[in-house]
Please model this.
Amino acid sequence: MKCPRFVPIRPDFKKLVLGGGISIILGLIGIFNFINVMSVGVIARKRKLATLEAIGMSSRQIRKMEYFMYW
Model:
């Protein structure tokens, strides 16, 4: 009985480049999405704190509220 001849599978270079390019693009989109989410969160929080300060909360009250909110 003969053993079948082993033929190594070589990845096609064009497919490798295409897959790598798509991976890099998706990675960049993910990084930009993360930066966008974080910056929007910071901006919204600053706006909320400014509104609370504008209606009369002192900075001490705001710090106290923030402490108990996330405790």
